Automatic annotation (TrEMBL):
Pfam families: TerB. It comes from Tianweitania aestuarii. It comes from the Bacteria. InterPro entries: DjlA_N, TerB-like. This is TerB family tellurite resistance protein. SUPFAM superfamilies: TerB-like (SSF158682). Residues 32-140 form the Co-chaperone DjlA N-terminal domain.
Length: 143
């Protein structure tokens, strides 16, 4: 991402703001984009899925609920700049535990509304393959 854009975000939102932190961290951006895509996979954004994303963002990424709307707006606006090739390269660099956690987060979001759509299952299956995670690692993972 161009440094000028990052500097603009810092000046608008403040240096320690969650949006600036996401903008400066391509790994975090790629993870959040994938989680956001899981929410959109079935074509509907449910309150339960958004609440699950909020909980994940706060617990795993330290993004406060008050900042989440700004982070989502950033992802909507600039997420297209992250290509599939860039995401693949980023995800390949993650350690296995972080890949497992990302996959578990995706599954949590997919199950949040208590209804799994075909598109959600397909996206999760593709992500597991990309992350080199076996489904049993997610199903049998300790909470």
């Amino acid at each position: 991402m161009p440094q000028g854009l990052i500097n603009k975000l810092k000046s608008v939102f403040g240096a320690e703001d969650a949006v600036a932190r996401v903008a400066e961290d391509p790994i975090l951006t790629a993870e959040l984009l994938l989680l956001f895509r899981m929410i959109l996979a079935d074509g509907e954004i449910s309150d339960a899925e958004l609440e699950t994303l909020r909980r994940i963002c706060q617990g795993s990424f330290g993004i406060d609920e008050a900042d989440l709307d700004d982070v989502v707006d950033y992802l909507r606006t600039y997420g297209y700049e992250t290509s599939v090739a860039q995401s693949l390269a980023i995800f390949r660099r993650l350690d296995h535990d972080r890949k497992q956690l990302l996959a578990r987060h995706m599954a949590e979001i997919a199950k949040a509304d208590h209804h799994l759509e075909k598109q959600e299952v397909q996206l999760l299956a593709r992500a597991l393959k990309l992350l080199e995670i076996e489904p049993s690692e997610i199903v049998n993972a300790p909470r």
